[in-house]
Design brief:
The complex is a heterodimer. Chain A has eleven helices and ten strands. By secondary structure, chain A is α+β, with helices and mostly antiparallel strands. Chain A is globular, with a radius of gyration of 21 Å. Classes of the chains: A alpha+beta, B alpha+beta.
Chain lengths: ~375, ~400
């Protein structure tokens, strides 16, 4: 058993930390968020050059064969810097889908533009009525000659506002919300019939509501086997969860560090407020929450290849813990900062927002608690 | 022991309900109930309606325009109007500077300022907190130096709620730097609009709102007539306000309205094919919040009833502040959760007016983040706990 980083992992961490420190200072980030694009094409190219976009993919796919641990290292660094580049949407979610759905002969070609940073994808899976259920797919893909016609609506598509291409999950068969009968299609972002209502999210990212109105695609738009998208989709969402938990860990770490610095410096009644035992204990409680999340994230990251039951449990448990402990740290950080914690011009408020809102992606803590309860019930029934 | 309202109190409650039904425009109460922003014009509309009825200055003595209500009547009025979605009455003029002027001011000050407050002709802001003086308010540094028949004021105030709409500000200033800090403070009234040297700078909060400001004083000449009470006795005015009529501080009516709104959302909004309220975890949270709110409500009634019997609530209002703010924050937390993925779109004006997701989702995250302020302002909950520890527990 060895929890320390390997040399390569440490180098990867240093590289991410360096580029984030150089390119993602608070003001730089504000500018990027306010820009038309909502991310920085310059920084994105740098990520590509450094090989960051290749980290999670198998060697056959043209990647560095990074596992959960490597993904965690990168995402944690992004969390510390509150990076808003489309790493999760393009590389982790869409990219993993390709890596999982295609065989070794074809995946490298599909992934090349993603890894090279030339093309950004957005995974358009969730729907307005489905909330956090990834199998709630009312979007249909009906056979149309050799190709298909897609109709439906996708909700809060991360990176969907400006992605070059969408990876759309649509139902080719089966009854909603069955996992079987789901298929994935590549759709050009500006294809006929695609309309996108883009917006900024509360935590500085971009997303879109996407409507598909008789969108025609060719047979080559299908990714993987018709009706069998559920399994590669699960791989993509699992990796997404690891990445988000790791981002939360990084953000929570910064929130704790910033809060600690603040209470050491801020004087009221003639003394630093950090000298008050009540606040010291609360600061410690924040650290305990951080350590819990760090531990659960690590466990989840190292469970991506574990047997199904364990993998399901650890991913749900980590995401749940991030929701619960993350909110605790975010709220305490704001409270201990006092009025400054409420200010948009304080970085702590941005950390607090990101930490809390991570719970709204890929299933909130209630959703994952329900999944864990389902698992417990299944196991009890089988026993 | 009798925990029910008596007949007269019930009749009064009906009277308040009838007035609200008639005079509170639905366009305003709808906004309040769905946690949307209420405009300054909306607030003044409501204040004027109350003024015409004689129900605006509920905490003032009758001789100055108060309706002469008992603590229980005031409580009923606050709860009923809040539950009906009435906008919050800005406390700075009516419940802060006015009581101080009534208790410590000159006849000229009473004759001039009080009618203007009643008629909503002046919009008051509170100049208390400074970057270096939050919880330690007595550590304030904003300086006022006597120069003939003026004070020259220099310094900075922060966290000035709605200061961008204000034309008047009451300021705690330091008039003596040589004595113990509480003993060198004065209470000064400043005409923001007509006095050179006053600058208001917006402070944007994490929810994107412009609710608070910084106010800078640069050699501002304030007439000596604008001093309230004695020079260097301003801290007495500030302390007086801490226990003045704070029985409404728990905001039970506001929380009840918010919880009712959540229940409506849970009944009508669907997820995965069924109404949110049918999801066990949602129902559980709603019930738990209701229980907690009941505990706050009854505690509030006990304090109000003691005031009715002639007691003066002191540190009890600290309990109410802590309990009331915590439950309100928890309600806003569930509100955010209920919005699910649609809590994410960030509010530029368009989003809240016309939400990306279901209508209620537009203000879900805004409300949650904005209300983090409740445990920070008005005397932070930590300070309230210190007050209870000292004054009630003797620690």
């Amino acid at each position: 058993m060895d929890f320390s980083y390997s040399d390569e992992q440490r180098m990867l961490k240093d590289m991410v930390d360096r580029v984030v420190a150089d390119q993602y200072g608070f003001e730089q980030r504000e500018k990027i968020i306010k820009s038309d694009a909502g991310y920085s094409p310059e920084v994105w190219s740098q990520f590509a050059e450094l090989g960051l976009l290749a980290v999670p993919f198998s060697e056959a796919a043209g990647g560095f064969d990074g596992g959960g641990a490597e993904l965690m290292v990168v995402a944690e660094g992004f969390g510390r810097g509150l990076v808003v580049e489309p790493y999760l949407s393009s590389v982790v979610l869409a990219g993993t889908f390709f890596d999982a759905a295609l065989d070794d002969d074809t995946k490298a070609e599909a992934l090349e533009p993603i890894i090279g940073g030339e093309q950004r994808y957005a995974l358009a899976c969730y729907e307005p009525a489905g909330r956090y259920d990834a199998h709630w797919i009312e979007t249909t893909a009906k056979k149309d000659g050799d190709g298909y016609v897609l109709n439906g609506k996708k909700a809060v598509v991360l990176g969907g506002d400006s992605a070059d291409r969408l990876l759309v999950i649509a139902r080719t068969s089966g009854d909603n919300p069955s996992a079987s009968g789901l298929s994935a299609f590549i759709v050009e972002g500006d294809a006929d019939g695609v309309s996108r209502e883009g917006y900024t999210t509360f935590d500085g990212h971009r997303a879109a509501e996407i409507t598909l109105d008789n969108v025609k695609v060719g047979a080559d738009a299908l990714v993987g086997e018709e009706g069998s998208a559920a399994k590669p989709l699960q791989h993509a969402l699992d990796r997404g969860i690891v990445a988000m938990c790791a981002e939360a860990t990084g953000a929570m770490e910064m929130a704790c560090d910033l809060t600690l610095d603040y209470i050491k410096e801020r004087k009221q009644f003639g003394v630093p407020i950090g000298s008050f035992q009540a606040l010291q204990h609360r600061m410690v409680d924040m650290r305990i929450s951080l350590e819990k999340v760090r531990s659960m994230t690590l466990w989840a990251a190292c469970s991506l290849d574990a047997p199904e039951a364990e993998r399901r449990q650890r991913l749900a448990a980590a995401k749940y813990m991030v929701g619960k402990a993350g909110r605790h740290v975010a709220e305490e950080a704001i409270q201990l900062f006092g009025g400054m914690g409420m200010m948009d011009e304080s970085s702590i408020s941005h950390y607090a927002k990101r930490i809390v809102l991570i719970d709204h992606y890929l299933g909130d803590r209630n959703y994952h608690l329900d999944r864990l309860i389902d698992q417990l019930t299944e196991e009890s029934a089988a026993a | 022991m009798d925990i029910q309202y008596n007949e007269a109190e019930l009749a009064f409650r009906d009277e308040v309900r009838a007035f609200v039904a008639e005079k509170l425009p639905k366009s305003i109460s709808d906004k309040v109930k769905s946690s949307e922003h209420v405009s300054p014009e909306d607030m003044i509309t409501w204040q004027r309606a109350l003024y015409e009825k004689g129900w605006l200055a509920i905490n003032w003595p009758e001789e100055h325009g108060g309706p002469g209500w008992s603590p229980i009547q005031k409580h009923i009025f606050e709860e009923e109007t809040a539950e009906a979605g009435a906008p919050r009455i800005l406390p700075f003029g009516l419940n802060m500077v006015a009581p101080v002027i009534i208790k410590f001011g000159t006849q000229e000050q009473k004759d001039y300022y009080l009618p203007r407050i009643l008629k909503s002709e002046d919009w008051w802001a509170q100049g208390y907190s400074e970057p270096g003086a939050g919880s330690d308010l007595a550590g304030l540094k904003c300086r006022a130096e006597r120069d003939g028949d003026h004070y020259i004021v220099n310094g900075q105030k922060t966290w000035t709620t709605l200061g961008q709409h204000a034309n008047m500000i009451f300021v705690l200033v330091r008039t003596d730097t040589t004595v113990k800090k509480q003993e060198g403070i004065s209470f000064l009234l400043v005409d923001m609009e007509n006095t050179p040297g006053v600058t208001v700078r917006p402070l944007i909060t994490l929810d994107g709102a412009h609710e608070v400001n910084e106010v800078f004083f640069d050699n501002v000449k304030v007439p000596v007539e604008n001093l309230v009470g004695e020079e260097n006795k301003g801290w007495t005015c500030a302390k007086y306000l801490l226990t003045f009529e704070r029985t409404g501080i728990a905001g039970v009516g506001i929380s009840k309205a918010a919880l009712e709104h959540l229940k409506q959302i849970a009944r009508t909004e669907k997820a995965e094919g069924k109404p949110l309220i049918e999801h066990p975890r949602v129902a559980e949270r709603l019930v738990e919040l209701e229980l907690e709110l009941m505990a706050v409500e009854m505690t509030n009634l006990r304090v109000v009833s003691a005031a009715e019997a002639g007691g003066v609530p002191g540190a009890e209002s600290s309990f109410l502040k802590i309990m009331g703010t915590e439950v309100r924050q928890k309600i806003s937390d569930l509100y955010r959760e209920l919005a699910g993925p649609y809590a994410l779109p960030f509010p530029d004006e368009d989003v809240v007016e016309d939400a990306i997701g279901p209508e209620f989702s537009g203000s879900a995250a805004t409300t949650y983040f904005n209300l983090r302020k409740l445990s920070i302002f008005g005397g932070s909950n930590e300070i309230q706990k210190n007050i209870i520890s000292k004054a009630i527990l003797g620690l």
